[in-house]
Amino acid sequence: MNEALNLLEEIDNAGDYKSILKLFFGGIAGAFFCLMFGGSMLDFIATFFISSIVVLISAHLGKRNVTFFLSNVIGSIAATILAIIFSMTSLSFSIDKIIIGSIMPLVPGVAITNAIRDSISGDFLSGLSRSLEAIIIALAIAFGVGVTLKFQLIF
C-alpha cells in the first residue's frame, strides 16, 4: 500500500512537458487541422506559427488564473488577428483555413469526450456540467473570431 502511495505521489510531483515542446506540438496540431480542412502548404506554415502563439497565450493566461472563457476569447482574437495579418500579404493565404486550424488548440475536445462518457455511464449531472463547460468554451471561441472578423469588415 505504501509503495502505491509513493508511486502516486511521484506521479503527482512529476514535471510537466517543456514549454517549447508544448508550443511545437500545439503548432503542429493546428497546422495539420489546416491541411485536413483543405489548406495549402503556405497555410500550413502560417497556421503552425499562429497556433504556437495561441498555445503560448493560453499557457500565459492560465498561469495568471484568467478564467477559461476570457482565455479562449483572447486566444481566438489573437488567432484571427494574426490570420488577417497573414492574409494581407501578397501571398495567397486562405484566411478561413488558417483560422480554423489556429483555433483548434482551444477547442474543448477532452471536455466534450468526458461529457459524453459521463452521460453514457449514467452520471447525468456531471455530463451536463461538462457539456455546459464545453458549450461555453465553444461560444467564447466563436465570439472572439466573430467579433474580430466583424471589426475587420468595419475597418
From TrEMBL:
InterPro entries in the record: ThrE-like_N, ThrE_Dicarb/AminoAcid_Exp
GO terms under cellular component: plasma membrane
Keywords: Cell membrane, Membrane, Transmembrane, Transmembrane helix
GO MF annotations in UniProt: transmembrane transporter activity
Listed GO biological process terms: succinate transport
Compartment list: Cell membrane
Ranges of residues in domain Threonine/serine exporter-like N-terminal: 2-151
Chain ranges passing through the membrane: 20-37, 44-62, 68-86, 128-149
Topology in membrane: Multi-pass membrane protein
Protein family membership: Belongs to the ThrE exporter (TC 2.A.79) family.
Protein name: Threonine/serine exporter-like N-terminal domain-containing protein
Lineage: Bacteria, Bacillati, Bacillota, Tissierellia, Tissierellales
